[in-house]
């Protein structure tokens, strides 16, 4: 319509304007009532009428007309135009047209005027804001064109159409679109229109963004299906097919698989619109619910974790509505704790309460009531009896929640199944009690024992010594902080022993039965025997030694006494042996002189054989051989005598007892002969060897033979005979070697038999009475037994029984 008006604003109007509005104004105003004269007057009248009409048109046409010179000065403006801007025309004429434009638009207005001036007669159109006198904005669409006046000067004619309303509507629309787009962006919701028949779609900017699609492209249903996650495609297609057939509204969710592999969750709602033609279109919105879905997933997972954590830690949580006395919430674990299935969600609180032992439930009610009254947290332990008969022990903690009315609304809390802990605690307590009893027991032992217990640190300094109830015990005092070698007085006396001991300690080795000299709590010297073993911490670091010590003074003294006795006995044995040898001097001399005499006579014979002509060398050789034999015999006798006389250490070797007997008999041969005593030897040929000391056993035999000879000295009518018998016996594995010496002498009276082994018992005037006592101790040292019996008839028998090893020692 405006363009029509502008079209009317053609050349005639332009001519009119060019003709000078000022003239028109004068026609209309000052000279309108002047009378017309003649033809010219007629023409004037016609012109005046025409001008008047045009003036009406010009002034009241609802188009704003401006006439501007090249400098931008308003040459003329119609009343409507001035009024639109809130001015009188006179206020604008002669002023710069820029005055009705905003400062920031001046440059563009100048450019437009310049453009018109450059292209005379060519129309130009633009839209621009104008500023009213009251400062308000007037949007105009300007049609402008430069024309040349009669004098050839250019002038710019401008016709303006008010487009403020349209502009405001456009702005409002733009604004509302911007708001909508903004709202869609914020809510991740895009809108769409979809024609199922054509597959064409109309999308909002946000929909493009959600689908990550270039807004310049045309969206299609095909593209949508390409984007939909392959797993959801069939379902979506079925949903859309059904909706398009039934014209059903849509409300469904599906996923998009984006080009970068990420997944989006969409919620789509659409209204089905059926057109008169029967064509169905959907208009709807899709919302990107990925964040919500992920949050939902996270929540679901965290709930699953929580449930798992509760299951693992045997912890259940609950909330109890105080007014309704009913659960407001209970976790799955609570069901399990009470022996229910987690899906029994309709169970009333009463069912749970009935499984609590009645006396415990009464306590719970009381404690909860108090917690509500005092608005304080509480904790309580109780027991649950499950249908399977098992009892669970529960520790619960709860705290009241205050509602908006200031009253306690809920109690929320946790139950922890502490059955196992309780059992473990009880077991621990039992073990602890047992340990305490056992510790007390050992403390009692330690305090009453003569041994004492000690502990040393890593530097081997004593850190602990057991207490003793009995103060008379030898356990030393005041030793804490000292090392073992700080204490004994023999550290200097036996440096080697201590060096060995310290090496063992440095190597953290256990040690046993270290005996050292120390002093008891009264300062008296004592012997201490100690054993210890190292102990370590859990990581294996050496912490020191623990061990036990005892006072072994008495034992050591006994050992020392025994040793002294043993020495004295050995001394005595030697002395008596030498004494016996003295008694045997005559026999010994005979033993030696006999072979020596034979040597001499054989030497004589040998010389005789050699002196013959010719010398009888064979006989001389035989004599010489006899000489050698006799000399050897004499030398052997001397060797035995020397051995007996020598003070040697006991030497235990395997021996043939028969041989010992023969040698002993040989030594007393002279005594036998002098006293006309015959010897009968019945020696077992298969005698096993025994382990013993040859010299000592010979001494025993010589003693017995000499005693036998002496016992028969008074025999006048009885033959003087000594019988020596050897044999071996095996009584149920008790293998013994037996040797008897039987005489036919005075025999043993009852009173004598009991005493003959007592030291210094003798019935002889020159006797010492030590012989048999030494013999017995020698045999006992060989683990054997020496006994004496009176014979049936006359005389006495001495029996030596020596043990044989289980295996033949030979
Ligand atoms: P002594 O020969 O110095 O007396 P012994 O200890 O050898 O010391 O003997 C102690 C005593 O035992 C003898 O004095 C004697 O009374 C008695 N006695 C020892 N052997 C015999 C024996 N064969 N027959 C009878 N009495 C004996």
From TrEMBL:
One of the Pfam families matching this protein, by short name: PAS_3
Kinase recorded as keyword = yes
Main location per the UniProt record: membrane
Q: Where is the signal peptide?
A: none
SMART domains recorded for this chain? HATPase_c, HisKA, PAC, PAS
Q: What is this protein called?
A: histidine kinase
Where is the protein situated, by its record's location annotation? Answer: Cell inner membrane
**SUPFAM superfamilies for this protein:** ATPase domain of HSP90 chaperone/DNA topoisomerase II/histidine kinase (SSF55874), Homodimeric domain of signal transducing histidine kinase (SSF47384), PYP-like sensor domain (PAS domain) (SSF55785)
Membrane topology, as annotated, equals: Multi-pass membrane protein
GO annotations of cellular component type: plasma membrane
| Catalyzed reactions per annotation | ATP + protein L-histidine = ADP + protein N-phospho-L-histidine
| UniProt-listed NCBIfam families | sensory_box
- The chain positions of domain PAS read 50-120
Query: Which Gene Ontology molecular function entries are recorded, alphabetically?
Result: ATP binding; identical protein binding; phosphorelay sensor kinase activity
Q: Which InterPro entries match?
A: HATPase_C_sf (IPR036890), HATPase_dom (IPR003594), His_kinase_dom (IPR005467), HisK_dim/P_dom (IPR003661), HisK_dim/P_sf (IPR036097), PAC (IPR001610), PAS (IPR000014), PAS-assoc_C (IPR000700)
Q: What is its EC number?
A: 2.7.13.3
The chain positions of domain Histidine kinase read: 587-806
Top-level taxon of the source organism: Bacteria
State the Gene Ontology BP annotations.
Answer: regulation of DNA-templated transcription
